[in-house]
Amino acid sequence: MRWRFALFRVAVASSLALLSAGLVSALASKPVLHVVLAGFGSVAVFYAVVFVAYVSSLGGGRGCSSGFSVLQLALYASSLLVSWPRPALSLYSVGVLAGLAAVLCVLPSTLSGPGARIVVPLLLSYLGGVAASIVLLGKTLPLVELVIVLLNAPILASAYSINLYSLYQTYRLGGLLYSAVAVVGAHSLGVIAYASTGDQRLMGLAAAAYAALVVRGVLASRPRSPAHKYFVRGQYLVALFSLGYAIALLQHYDVVKLAHILSMGLIASHIYIHAPLMLPPMMGLRHARRYWSIPYILLAASLAARLADAGLFAAVLFACSLASMIYVFTP
C-alpha cells in the first residue's frame, strides 16, 4: 500500500508542477509550451493518476487493471519528453488503449456488483477515445485543436461518466444512469466527428444534455453536511460551465477561448469537486475538511478574466483558486 501512496503523491505533485510551469510559460509569452505543459501535460497526468485509483478500486485491486492503469500514467507522462506532435500523439494513443484494457480487465469482476453501472459509460468513453486517436494519427491538426480533441477523449468523457455515477450513487436516481450512457455515447461520437471533420455540434448537444442531467441530479439533493454542500455547490458550477461549453461549441467560438472554457472551466470544476474527497485516501493523508466556496468563486472569476483577455489577472486568480482548493483538504 505504501508504494501506491508514494506513486499517487509523486504523480499529483508532478501534475501541479506541470501546471505551475504552464502558467509561467503563458506569462512569459510562450504559447506552445503553455499548451503542452498545462493542457496536455498537467491535465492528462492528473487524470491518469485518478484513473489508476478509480479503476483499480472497481476491480478490487486486481493486478491486471492496476498494471494497465500504471502503464497509461507512464505513457501520458513520457509523451511530454519527446518532440511534439507525432511521437507524443502516438504515446498518448497507446495510453488510451491501455485505459481501455484496464476497463476491460475490471469488467468480469463488476458484472454482478454496483461497479457494473459505471463500466458501460467508461467503456464508451474509451472506445470514443481510441477511435479519435486512430483518426488523429492520420491527420495534421493545429496544436490547440489537437489538445481539445485529446482533452475531450477520453478525459472529459470519463469525467461525465464518473460524475453522473456519483450523482446516481448519492441520490439513487436510476434513470440518470441510462441517461448517462446516452450522453457519454453521444459525446464520444461527437469527439470522433470533431477529430474527423471538425464538426462540433454533437459534442455541443452532449454538453447541453449533460448540464441538464447534472441539474436534475442536484435538484434531488437535500445537503446537510459541509462536505455534501460543497459537492452540490460544485455540481451547479459544473452545470454552468457545461452549458457555457455547449454554447461555445455550437457558436464556433475562437479555438483558444474554447480550449480555456474546456480546461479552466469544465474539466477544472470536475477536479475541484472530487479532488478534496478522493485525494486524501489515495495519498494516505489526513483530511482537513475545510469545505468553503472560495475555490469555485475564484475558478469562475479566473475563466471570466481569461475570456476577457486579461491573461495575467486570470493566471493569478486561477493560481489562487487552485491553492484554496488544496487548502480544503490538506492538514
Shape: globular
Element string (H = helix, E = strand) = HHHHHHHHHHHH
Task: Determine the mean pLDDT.
Answer: 86
Radius of gyration: 18 Å
Brief descriptors of the model:
12 helices, 331 residues
Structural write-up:
By secondary structure, the chain is mainly α. It is 83% helix and 0% strand. The protein contains twelve helices and no strands. Helix 1 packs antiparallel against helix 2, helix 2 (31-58) packs across helix 10 (255-283) and helix 11 (294-307) runs antiparallel to helix 12 (311-329). The longest helix is centred in the middle third of the chain and has 29 residues, at 143-171. The radius of gyration is 18 Å and the shape is globular.
Topology summary:
Blueprint: H1 2-27, H2 31-58, H3 63-78, H4 86-110, H5 116-137, H6 143-171, H7 174-197, H8 201-219, H9 226-250, H10 255-283, H11 294-307, H12 311-329
Helix pairs in contact: 1-2, 1-12, 2-3, 2-4, 2-6, 2-10, 3-4, 4-5, 5-6, 5-7, 6-7, 6-8, 6-10, 7-8, 8-9, 9-10, 10-11, 10-12, 11-12
How would you summarize this macromolecular structure in one to three sentences?
This protein is an all-alpha fold. The protein has helices at residues 2-27, 31-58, 63-78, 86-110, 116-137, 143-171, 174-197, 201-219, 226-250, 255-283, 294-307, 311-329.
